[in-house]
Amino acid sequence: MNHKIIDAGVASQIGAYSDAILVQPGLRWLYTSGTPGLTESGELPPDITGQAEIAWQHILRMLDKANMGVVDIVKATHSLIRAEDIPAYAKVRSRFLGDHRPASMLSVVPQLVRPEFLLEIEIVAAKA
Fold first, then answer.
1. Checking DSSP bridges between strand 73-80 and strand 103-108, what pairing results, if any?
2. What's the pTM value of the predicted model, to 2 decimals?
3. How far apart are CA 20 and CA 60, in angstroms?
4. In 19, 38, 92, 109, which residue has its Cα 20 to 30 A from 52's Cα atom?
5. Percent share of the chain, pLDDT over 90
6. What is the pLDDT of residue 61?
7. Predicted pLDDT of residue 117
8. Cβ–Cβ < 8 Å for 2, 98
9. DSSP E strands: which ranges in the chain?
10. Alpha helix stretches (DSSP H) within the chain
11. Distance CA 57, CA 36 (A)
């Protein structure tokens, strides 16, 4: 890993993420757009679990195409439209991230670009 976790003592009180990540100089960077749980054929599952699964599969595919993996994620931003979906979303997120703890931000927003989207995920990754 080309990153160093900076622990301020806040994240450990809240969830499975790091307070900050220090990235070493000279690395390649990958920034994704907000990624919804929409299939390539335009299908959208009606529930948060289905949409989260698809969104994370897209994230993994983008990482793979950049010759990166989950351990290269330094920051993840999660936008959900319903607070009650946080526990179900957290289970999916945990399954995809495993023990990796990037810096993270989760916001509950009133609506995304399409009203049927329940979430969008955006990541920043860095690798030599």
1. parallel
2. 0.93
3. 22
4. 19
5. 90
6. 97
7. 98
8. no
9. 3-6, 20-23, 28-31, 73-80, 103-108, 119-127
10. 11-14, 48-65, 86-97
11. 10
Distant-in-sequence contacts of 58-67, Cβ < 8 A, 24+ apart = 59/32, 59/35, 59/96, 59/121, 59/123, 60/96, 62/30, 62/32, 62/35, 63/30, 63/123, 63/125, 66/28, 66/30, 66/125, 66/127, 67/127
Six token digits for residue 101: 């703890």
The H-or-E segment that residue 17 falls in is none
Q: Which two tokens stand for residue 29?
A: 């960077």
Q: Which two tokens stand for residue 8?
A: 């301020």
Please tell me the distance from the alpha carbon of residue 65 to that of residue 60, in angstroms, as a whole number.
Answer: 9
Q: Which amino acid, 76?
A: A
Question: pLDDT tens, 31-65?
Answer: 999 999 999 999 999 999 999 999 999 999 999 99
